[in-house]
Amino acid sequence: MASSDIERRVTLICPVCGGDQFESDEHDDAVPVTCAACGRKFSRDELTQANHERIEAEIHKMGEQALEDAAKDLRKLGFK
Ligand SMILES: [Zn+2]
Q1: Strands of the chain, DSSP E
Q2: Distance 36 CA to ligand 1 centre (A)
Q3: How many structural domains does the chain have?
Q4: Is the Cβ–Cβ distance between 29 and 44 less than 8 Å?
Q5: Is the pLDDT of residue 46 over 80?
Q6: Which value, in Å, is the radius of gyration of the alpha carbons in the chain?
Q7: Cα(23) to centroid of ligand 1, in Å?
Q8: Which structural domain range is residue 10 located in?
Q9: Which of 10-19, 41-50, 52-61, 64-73 is least confident?
Q10: How far apart are CA 54 and CA 58, in angstroms?
């Protein structure tokens, strides 16, 4: 599973305005994502941290085997 699959499974939400539409470069994780609603830029790290609880909840739903895969993917994202 590619790390971007996790991000697609979870609806990431802008911590500033609550928008869920972002512009990003799927091929380069170093490029900041931009909220389409308020225009605020976030690093992937910032957005992942801001959505920590949503990601945890989604992983819980995915079940134990998927959880192991997801945990590996999240570690690749720098999620500790
Ligand atoms: Zn926003």
Answers
A1: 22-23, 33-35, 41-42
A2: 7
A3: 1
A4: yes
A5: yes
A6: 12
A7: 11
A8: 3-76
A9: 64-73
A10: 6
